[in-house]
Write a structure and sequence with these properties.
- The chain is 26% helix and 25% strand.
- By secondary structure, it is of the alpha+beta class.
- The strands form four sheets. It has a seven-stranded mixed beta barrel with strand order 1-2-10-13-12-11-9. A two-stranded antiparallel sheet has the order 3-4.
- Strand 3 and strand 4 form a beta hairpin.
- The chain is extended.
Length: 306
């Protein structure tokens, strides 16, 4: 059972849905501590007060805003919790929009919203079904951890999910990262589409979507625990080189993708580059011109005497 990280309500017009919030994701990353390599003693970060020059405990530490170099305004957790904002205690829905209109770059971590008690069951189901039937998502505002946030509400497996979102001014413009203008042929675009079709999946299940890094790290830790040689990295079959022929690279990529899925790598070859066809009309005209020139030449000659 995931831990409850926040309690409040969803504000949906005049409808209020009491809810509790739990994280929808888990982090399976392997964590490391810092150690003194000479004797493997744990290295810890100690918190010191600059004025008293002594270590302080967690109970003595609070938040503060530095107004000037000499003046700091203390802010307590209670003051943050009781901010005079409607979003401090409720997730306030402000609009409904099509999911396609939301830039995925704005979408962050996800949270499950569970109804709190029997009284919340009916309005919770009402909002869930309204979202599902409308094929829209809700944009909401809420305040957690000392700041107001923008959020997106959607339905997943009969549960309402809240995704944290970034404010529009938090998204950087990509203009300075754009590549210089280049020209692409129709054949190259068709080749990329063929590779896309070959790599298309119905879902994100399979060996391609597992955390290989954590698995490899676990193998190293286990090998060192058993005092044996850690597994070696498999050398690639060939060193990746600079792409010279884009069409050749696309063709090889499609063949490898099909071979990895057990398909015939030779079927449906990519379109080959078009070559300029000879123009028969010009040839005919050239022949006519040659005949005319020959006729003129013949007419200009004097007949031989017998």
């Amino acid at each position: 059972m995931p831990r409850n990280i926040w309690s409040g309500a969803i504000s949906f017009g005049l409808v209020t849905v009491p809810i509790s919030v739990a994280s929808a994701t888990e982090d399976h990353s392997i964590r490391f501590h810092q150690y003194h390599l000479e004797d493997m003693g744990r290295v810890r970060v100690r918190k010191y007060c600059e004025i008293e020059d002594r270590e302080v405990g967690q109970g003595e530490i609070g938040k503060g805003y530095q107004l000037t170099k000499e003046q700091v305004i203390p802010i307590s957790d209670e003051e943050l919790r009781d901010l005079p904002l409607p979003t401090a205690k409720a997730i306030e829905i402000v609009a409904f929009v099509p999911l396609d209109s939301v830039d995925p770059l704005k979408i962050g971590e996800g949270y499950y919203l569970a109804p709190s008690g029997q009284v919340a069951a009916k309005p919770y189901k009402l909002l869930r079904m309204a979202l599902a039937r409308s094929s829209k998502v809700a944009v909401a505002k809420y305040a957690w951890s000392g700041r107001e946030r923008l959020g997106l509400l959607r339905v997943r497996d009969d549960v309402i999910v809240l995704h944290a979102m970034r404010w529009p001014d938090e998204i950087r413009s990509p203009e300075e990262l754009l590549p210089p203008p280049v020209e692409l042929s129709d054949e190259e675009i068709d080749g990329a589409l063929a590779l896309l079709d070959t790599m298309t999946r119905e879902n994100l299940e399979g060996e391609e979507f597992k955390d290989s890094y954590t698995e490899a790290l676990s193998q190293i830790i286990e090998a060192k625990r058993e005092r044996r040689e850690p597994p070696k990295l498999q050398e690639p079959e060939s060193e990746p080189g600079q792409i010279v022929d884009l069409m050749a690279a696309l063709t090889e990529s499609v063949q490898k993708a099909r071979a990895s899925r057990g398909e015939d790598a030779d079927v449906h070859e990519l379109p080959k580059k078009k070559t300029a066809k000879k123009q028969p009309a010009k040839k005919t005209a050239a022949k006519k011109t040659t005949k005319k020139a020959a006729a003129k030449k013949t007419s200009g000659r004097r007949p031989r005497s017998a």
